Each structure stands twice: as C-alpha cells, then as structure tokens.
C-alpha cells in the first residue's frame, strides 16, 4: 500500500470513527444476552445514591431480564452531563429533570411520549395531576414527588430555652420570632441562616403577593417590586444580625446540614428534613408551610413536581423494560418505604399511602406540610421557559451584589429582571 | 504506525478545532435548531460586558501570577544551585506542588484553607488578627487564586536549574577573579545567559495562566463569584456554552482567546529580540 493510500485510509477511518460518535438512537443502554439494559440518570446530595443502588439491585434480582445501569452525579454535574449527552445523543433512558430545564429539554426534543408507557401502571397517579404536567398537550414527563416550600425549625433549641413557636406563621411574626430567639438565646445562635436564594420560597412570596414567577406565555411574571420586597425581608434580618453573615456562611448558599448547630431555623424545601435529621439526629425538627401574608392572594399555595423523563431515542423494544423500572421507582411501596420521601412526597397514591403509617417523626412532619398545602386551593403554576434556564444563577448574582454592598436591592433586581427578560 | 496518531489528531485536536470554528459562525445551542449567523457572534463579543469583565479578571490574574511565580522559581533555583546539603530532597519538595498542580483536589484544599474558619485565619488569630472569608471577598478572592498558581512554581524552577547548570563555569570564575561580587555576576553573567530560559518559561506560564480554569471553577462553585471577581475567561466560555447553552457564541469567545494569545505571544517574541540573549548571537 502506498503512503498516500495509507493516509487516505487512515483519514477515512477517522471520519468513520467521528461519524460513529454522532447523534443516533441510544447506544448506551441496549440488550445483552436477552437482558435489557436500562440507563437511569439521577442526582442527589450523595446520601440516597447507595439506597437507589440497593433498591435497583433488588429489582434486578426479581427481574432477571432487566439490568439497570445507574448514572449518578451531584445536581450541577448532572445537568452539565445532560448537556453533553444531549449534544452526543447519548441521554440516559430514564433521566431526572431539574426544574429550570423542564421546558428547555422539551425544546431540545429529548422527551419520549410516556402516555400509556408499557410496563407502567398509571392507576396510582391522579389523572388531573398528569394533565397539569402535560406540555403542549403531551404527557412527556412523569411525576416522582411533590415538593413544597416550608419553614423548618429546631424544637430542641426552643425547649432548651423554654420558648414557644408562634401559632400563626406570617412573614412578620416569623421575623419577630427569629429576632427574639437571636436576642435571647445564650449560645449566640442565630435565628436562621441567610437563604434568600431558595427559589421555591421566592415563588411562594410572589404568589402570595398575587404574582407568578413565570406566566403561561413564557414571560417573567414577577415584578421588580415583588422580588425586591422579598429580598428586603431578608436584608432586614441580615442587617439586624438575625441571620448568619455571608462571611460565616462562605457565600449566599447554604444548607441546614452545614449550619444546623448554629441556627434555629431554615426556609427551604419540605423534603430536606430527612437529610437534615440524618446530620443532626439528636435534634427534634419541626416543619410548617412557608409563612403566609395576612392578606395573601387566593390560590397562592403550590407544589413543585419532581419529574423524570424517558429519552426519545429509546427503541420501542426497550420501552417496556423502561416502563417496568419506572413503575418500580414511582409506584412500588417497597421502594418508597426503604428510600423515604427524599424526592418529595410521592406523587403516586400507592406510595403515599405506604408512607402514611410511618412512625418516623420526620416523615410525619414532611407529610403534614404537604397535606396542609394540598388541602388548599391552588391556582396554576408555570415552569421556567426554555431560554430562562439560567435564571437561578442570575438571581443568585443579584443577591450577591446586594449582600456585598455592590448594588442596592432595587438596582440588583432591576438588572436581574432585565437580563432574564432579555433572554426570553 | 501513523493511524493511531491520525485518529487522535483528527478526532481529538483538529476535528474539534475545525468544529468549533464552524460552530462559532452559527447560533448552535444544543437544545434548539442551528442557523448560520456569519460573524455575528464575533461582533457580539465586543458589546458583551461579561467579555470585558472576564478578560480584565484574566489579565489581572496573568499579570500578577506569572511574574510572581517566575520570580519565586528563579530565586529558589539560584538558591538550590549553590550545592547545599539535601539538595535532591529540597528540589523534589519544591517540585511536588507542580505535580499536584491546580487540580480539583488542591482547589478544594484551597477553599478549606481560606474560608472563614480555615487555616489562614486560624494562624492569623494567633497573632490577634481577625481574618475574613478570603474567597468571598471580591477584593481578595482573585489573590487567593494567584497564590494557588504561584504555588506551582516547581516546573519553571526545574527549567531554571537546568539553565543555570549550562552556564560555563569559567565565565563565573573569570568574573570572580576580576573582583565581581555575587550581585554583579548575577546581573552581568547569570541573568543574561538565563534569558532564553526566562523567555521560555514566560511563554509557557503566560499561555497556561490564560487557560486557567479548574481553580476558579472549584473555588467559586462554577459561578466566577463573588460578583464576577474570579470570572476567568475560560470559565466564562464554559458558562456560556454549558450553562447558557450558547455554544456558537462560546466557540466565538474561545477563538477570540486563541487569537488574543497568538497576538500576545507574537509580541513577546518580537520584544524578546531586545532582551533575550542566545549564545550563538
């Protein structure tokens, strides 16, 4: 073979190799020796990964024709990997969906229609709930659980002080309660850590003020005044040293797991009590729904649905295996009782019923918050539009400018508003 | 024999290079449809405030980190060249940080050292000084990353040591006999003969510093914060591409950096004619 021919062959081989890397049907999962391989992509903060692995192993022991390939990452890393996998056409067969990406992934066309997914029992999922999850009239995601914003506090700290929690949780009474605790506890603890960045609580505030974070037609529904008033509530607490300082926290982000021994309370998602209780097993934690304005707008209560999708590239002959795995994940009582509602209160009635008889006080607390919210009237809630997937970063940047004294609340929120609106 | 190289060169270097150049002329976003936009992305770069912010942060980083790192490396090389005892141990010890580099693990360690209740503030408190959260202060966050870069001085130090070994002993001896002290010998013989090594290290470290990414990504949690004070250019490219899904624009930003580094390197080569001394000249 002449050198030129050899080089030509090499170039052709390289092009073929590159072509093999291009988009196509999902080649990661597949079939091996009559066993269907199902890739399952998810995130968590680390504690549930092993539980998922053990549960999947149980499923595989009972279903020898299916092998689950678990693909796990932290929240941010998971989204970055999804981006790469979407570009390469190699998305996991079943994948979790971060809230800002729900409509962005829809725009990317990666969702398989899951209406009537073979192997999956839809009986335990409320039909109205499924209708609410439809995008453009199609059911292309399935609900794992419901998450609601809440106020969580340490009852042990209150008992030590002989103090009592307020009977009514308005924003004013909560702020007063936190001030009292900060000023009167002998350990120098703070009322709360700085957590203005919690997105669901911001949304709760806006809805109580009659605003929506996102509108039905994909616009930013929140006004500058609405967001600014929420940041102002936090800023008053921060300047009065009722919160930990951002220097102590090492930034505006934080979690109860890090600061639970230094603060009385947190504003966050109701399912986080499970992880918090693991870190501080000696504390008795209590949860109540997010504080409410005294003249809150009707229908302000809401839940956010944690969702999974099925990749559109999954071949038809593997769909049933995918459906069976999802059925185990979303409907099995064994799954939820062993895992606990770490991804929110189960959307499936069967799993929710399985948790009702629990004697775990933390799950009882989480259930009580969801029950209280579900009992209320809820006006529709809309997801972040496709081009707004970075809104939380922009929001954090605005908060950072405020707490570091680089901009006033109004200026920072105006800039946030303009950046996000401009990207839509 | 050539095939593995060819596959590697095409698949890992040339292919992506050409692909990114093509993408820079499109509005490719991964999630949506792609259209050819000509030079619009390049035009947009110069009206993007974050471009100027990230470039200024990166230039500040390069201007601080590279001279400090090379100065420290040269100083230690001069010390080690004197033939002190345990030279091998010192050399290996000083080189160790370069092996670890600005890796993810070291960046995480840096976070622990410089946080409010970290090692630095613990040491300062011994002397009655109240520290701060060095990484969450816009005035000091970049400086901590500069220190991280300076810390990896081992690699240029080894090159300087090799250069020092190449300096003819008879020149040093002749100067000594003529009464030249250490300072004079350093200024008139050692440094001029070392200029090719200084230039080589300068080019390598400058290009490397422009490409710094890991440390800013880990230390700032991928945001470039606080308030963009550690928004390195490469981090901004990453955010635009992988977080904002504007791959076409990110590709254009990457090519602007390539062109900028190319021009800067060319200027360095031109200027080097004035101060770099090669033995054969």
Give an account of the 3D structure.
Chain A: Its main location: other. Chain A: Keywords: Signal, Transport. Chain A: This is Carbohydrate ABC transporter substrate-binding protein. The complex is a heterodimer of chains A (about 425) and B (about 280). In chain A, α9 (about 225-240) packs antiparallel against α18, α14 crosses α15 and α17 runs antiparallel to α18. Chain A is built from 18 helices and eleven strands. Chain A has two domains: about 30-145 and about 305-355, Periplasmic binding protein-like II (D-Maltodextrin-Binding Protein, domain 2, 3-Layer(aba) Sandwich), CATH 3.40.190; about 150-300 and about 385-424, Periplasmic binding protein-like II (D-Maltodextrin-Binding Protein, domain 2), CATH 3.40.190. In chain A, the strands form two sheets. In chain A, strands 1, 2, 3, 4, 5, 10 and 11 form a seven-stranded mixed β-sheet that branches. Chain A is about 45% helix and about 15% strand. Chain A has helices at about 5-20, 50-60, 75-90, 100-110, 125-135, 155-160, 170-185, 200-210, 225-240, 245-250, 255-260, 275-280, 315-330, 335-340, 350-355, 360-375, 390-405, 410-424, and strands spanning about 30, 35-45, 65-75, 95, 140-145, 150-155, 190, 265-270, 285-290, 305-310, 345. Chain B is an all-alpha fold and about 280 residues long. Chain B has helices at about 1-25, 40-45, 50-80, 85-100, 105-115, 120-125, 140-150, 155-165, 170-175, 180-210, 215-220, 235-245, 245-275. In chain B, α3 packs parallel to α7 (about 140-150) and α8 (about 155-165) crosses α10 (about 180-210). At the A-B interface, α1, α3, α4, α10 and α17 of A face α1 of B.
List the main descriptive attributes of the protein structure presented here.
heterodimer, A: 424 residues, alpha/beta, D-Maltodextrin-Binding Protein, domain 2, 2 domains, seven-stranded mixed β-sheet, four-stranded mixed β-sheet, 14% strand, globular, B: 281 residues, mainly alpha, MetI-like fold, 0% strand, transport (chain A)
